[in-house]
Amino acid sequence: MKIKELVYYVLMLLIIFxxxxxxxxxxxxxxxxxxxxxxKKTTANKKITAILPKDIKWLTNDFDPxxxxxxxxxxxTCHLSILSFxxxxxxxxxxxxxxxxSAILDNHLSLTNIHxxxxxIIPELATHWAFDKDKKTMYFKLNKNAKWSDGVPVRxxxxxxxLEFMRSPYIIAPWYNDYYSKxxxxxxxxxxxxxxxxxxxxxxxxxxKIAIPPTPEHFFGKLxxxxxxxxxxxxxxxxxxxxxxxxxxxxxxxxxxxxxxWAKDLKIFKNRFNVDLVIFNVIRDFNMLWEYFKKxxxxxxxxxxxxxxxxxxxxxxxxxxxxxxxxxxxxxxRSASGMWLNQDKEIFSDKRVRYAFSHGMNIKKIIKKVxxxxxxxxxxxxxxxxxxxxxxxxxxEFSIVKVEKLMKEAGWKRGVSGIWQKNEKLxxxxxxxxFEGHTPRLVVLKEEAQxxxxxxxxxxxxxxxxxxxxxxxxxxxAWMGWSTNLRPSYWQSWHSDNAHLTxxxxxxNTDDSVIDKLINKYRASLSQDQxxxxxxxxxxxxxxxxNFVPTFMxxxxxxxxxxWIRLPEFHGTKKSNSLFDPFNAMTGGLFWFDRKLYNKTRxxxxxxxxxKPVTIINDNFKLGTEKGTxxxx
Length: 633
Fold this sequence. Notes:
By secondary structure, this protein is α+β, with helices and mostly antiparallel strands. The protein is built from 20 helices and 27 strands. The protein is 27% helix and 20% strand.
């Protein structure tokens, strides 16, 4: 099950495109690639004893509309950037849960996926699927053309190995150990291309739960205690459109498109994943990224932040039409963005103090003063999940009166400096964040909090270091956002199983028996209606802990992109969190590089000639508005 815990704004930075450095050969990489190719061994001849039921009704989906452009061209290079180099290429185990992880995981396909506009099941590694009457089991027929990036065929045994791999203590991944032990009962192999995945219990969203990815047994073999160190920088064979082809630690990572990719002509993938090379260069300063972008050394820049969309884009490259602007509204789950309070810190052990902290955060002032009312207030951590979202929960509003009442009840009093004090301890909190662009927001928050008697000490770290600090539970307040799933997922972030431990997502260290019981019922429920009711109750209880201060939601994406990068006429899908995601199997790879437009644009720049400036606003998926696409010149 793919779980993408990503900081929302760091995720946005993941899709910033940067000019490529010279192709430096990485000897250790090439040596490792040769070593791994020699390890190929097949499990195709394993003894098969299971007999496929005779009454299976096979399903497929060849009727849903494509969401790509027939005009898309193959070739060219995407120039991207990341703020810091990943701590590992592993997607499992310690230090693996960073922002770059999604770039690797998105090239690992699963059995099936979900169409981003219709919500229907669509083929991925499986061509057909069927549901058993027990509502716990799904059957799958694999695409016989599916291959790993090292040429080895994908077999049913690779899915059986996933179960062995994910349950192993050697991967040091508690969430995966738990999920694949408590949620997935077994993998049944009928032949090399037919299998079943069985859940431990019936599930109303079974197709979401058990569309698991394969794991290359021929690459990993038998795991042992050396797994973490041995595979820290390994390039694991995958089944997607791209594979890491070169890297230099601290400098760059390159992904190369597979020209002979087994899935390139499938309906759902045709005319997608078009560029030949995707290069991520490490650029640690966001302002420098902006300068690179204006010089055409990176192709895409996120304009979500109002100062860039409204002010800083008023520059020659936009005004002369070399760069286009697009504002694209989506309709999808919202990132749980906000302030995560570490309850294991003594100052936050009292719920009244946590509530007071929430009431001391003037989020609306930031939206109005810094964000030009372009952003919306997030009310809680699970918004955009339809009937699974509790609409009655409202974020605690800024109120100095409520702060004073709560702090006095908790035995605090205002000190000489105006900051709340108790037994010589000040209400002084360190807020750790990872993005320089958020500093103006936090400065306003700090000023407003001081009026309420709360001192905020702002700590800016690079994204990798900040996230490591959060997972090690060394923070007081984490300023960050998580990425989303198709359904609310609570166990990893709110269950006591993951409290008071490092390398888990329960960064608030919430340890509440009532919440535990509700989460356990939610995970075990056989009824979709019951799960929805439990979801509303869980969200209410989470809100009552006061461990999370929701901040903003942004129901759209905004980009500046150079004229030579082209999008389909419809621009994106209902679920697109970026229009320029190069890898995501559900919504990514829709754009392409146009060599003719590149040459023409460069020629115009040399001659100081202009195109008409272009701003596109696409609100086809915006809720509560008249739909359409507007393009201004």
